[in-house]
Amino acid sequence: MGALIARQVSGILAAQSARSGLPSAQESTEGGTRTPVLSEEESKATLARLADEVGKGGEINDLVLVGIRRRGDHLAARLASHLLSRHETDVPTGSLDITLYRDDFAQIGPRPIIGVTDIPVDLTDRRVVVVDDVLFTGRTIRAALNELADFGRPRRIELCVLIDRGGRELPIHADYVGTTVEVGVGQRVVVHVPEEDGELGAFLESEQEAG
Amino acid sequence: MTPAAAAPSPAGHHLGKDLIGLEDLDADRIQAILDTAEPFKEISERPIKKVPVLRGKTIVNLFFEPSTRTRISFEFAEKRLGADTVNISASGSSVEKGETLVDTARNLEAMRIDMVVVRHGSSGAAQFLAERIPSNVINAGDGQHEHPTQALLDLLTLRDTLGKIKGIKVCIVGDIRHSRVARSNIFGLLHMGAEVAVCGPRSLIPAGIEELGVRCFGRVEEAIEWSDALNILRLQLERMKTGFVPSLREYNRVFGVSRARLDAAGRRIVILHPGPMNRGVEIDSDVADGPESVILPQVTNGVAVRMAVLYLLAGGHPEHAEAAKGGAA
């Protein structure tokens, strides 16, 4: 399992060939196909590795994990529980809804559902690790950085993502990456968490599917 | 004053260009405003109480009638969303020099504004303005017509306190006849499925109000006995002059909500008041400051609900919002 976890998947074919003993990789969904990138077991192992890397990456006594809603906050909670069992340190975990900091309000208008942002501690002089499911254009992270600045002045801000799918439109990079995936035209990566979707895993979907 | 069979909204959250009243706003839209207000509450608790969502928008608060709390509440809401605001009051402006409402608004338009929050002494003024300028118009009270954001903050406070609006019993006490707060509350509560009653001197209850499905109480004791919540309106002191009410002491003796009357019900009845209060007239101090009172939470919710309305009106492209749902990470 260790080797499996450590590998950085490059491209969907690599992702599929590395999988063994798992059910057929490609499933049909309504209007499209979805291919697993990380199974439930692989997701759990990847999150455990990410938690270890975050733990080794710097001081954890002043660490705060901030997950971006509506998937990153659940991933942050999983990282926090790993850190608790590994380091016996209860890392404060917050959640961030970046809707009001998006740069496309003028283009798309108000989003119907805004989540509540909950930052439990003053971030001034803390080490903050922002957690998100998929890193794509970097615009969400830009919005998150602006929002975090309204909660204090952290000593350092790092970024942890489960999937890096490339396609950056801003000079933003992740410090901790679960796995990288190359995404073709008409495809997208989705991460599912039990709290929102009833399952844990990452999938490559063809974009005909609604939602 | 018939409750319009509000047409179902194509997209539940889409309010259109303006917010004029709750009469034509269906339950889906009201629900969308209240739900959107929830996350906005948290912004006012932050060390830096400002988000950039309306950055670069220019909003004019055009107040032809004196107002402290509504104007300040709107101004906080606008500033916390990052908008630029200008306040214009009737006194000391060109309005005093005889400029008409439309001329004032057109001159503001010529300076490239995005939204107007208007309060005016004439019923229908907000609608009149909305039909003549391309900016979003929000009614902050027009004559005896509507005051929709006050009713929305009352609905939000009731939902926070009682956990729901559908099925709750709310009695509005006081001058129903001249009150835009009462009208907006009646429409909003009925759309949301609450039971509504009014209570006050017969001279201050509009004829035919029962046809809306509103119950009338002539005695405040009966109203208290029936209610889950009382919304106690300010007795406009100028009503004395016009002879609707004999005296303040008489009004307090018959319709004042007192500790003794409240305790006689033997259960918790939520107390709302839109302010400013006449202590010792429509409401006694030990009720206003008592454990049942949600008068200060109403003020806090006022900012959140106005932020929600500004946010929802400012975008105005719901079809794009739908398409972008679950979009780029």
Q: Order of SSEs of chain A, N→C?
A: HHEEHEHEHEHEEEHE
Q: Which shape of chain B, going by the Cα principal axes?
A: globular
Distance between the termini of chain A: 33 Å
Number of strands of chain A: 9
Strand order of the largest sheet of chain B: 7-6-5-8-9
Low-confidence stretches of chain B: 1-12, 316-329
N-C termini distance of chain B: 48 Å
Per DSSP E runs of 2 or more residues, the count of β-strands of chain B stands at 9
Mean pLDDT of chain A: 85
Secondary-structure content class of chain A: alpha/beta
Could you tell me the radius of gyration of chain A in angstroms? 17 Å
Shape of chain A: globular
Count of alpha and pi helical runs of chain B: 13
Provide a concise account of the structure shown.
Chain A has about 210 residues and is of the alpha/beta class. In chain A, about 30% of the residues lie in helices and about 25% in strands. Chain B has helices at about 25-45, 70-80, 100-110, 125-130, 150-160, 180-190, 220-225, 240, 250-255, 260-265, 285-290, 295-315, 320-325, and strands spanning about 60-65, 85-90, 115-120, 135-140, 170-175, 195-200, 215, 230, 270.
What does this structure look like?
The complex is a heterodimer of chains A (211) and B (329). Chain A contains 7 helices and 9 strands; from the N terminus they run H-H-E-E-H-E-H-E-H-E-H-E-E-E-H-E. Chain A is α/β, with parallel strands linked by helices. In chain A, a hairpin with a 2-residue loop joins strand 1 and strand 2 (32-38). The longest helix of chain A is centred in the N-terminal third of the chain and has 17 residues, at 40-56. Chain A starts with a helix and ends in a 5-residue tail after the last strand. In chain B, helix 1 packs across helix 12 (295-315) and helix 2 (69-80) packs across helix 12. By secondary structure, chain B is α/β, with parallel strands linked by helices. Chain B is built from 13 helices and 9 strands. At the A-B interface, helix 5, strand 5 and helix 6 of A face helix 1, helix 12 and helix 13 of B.
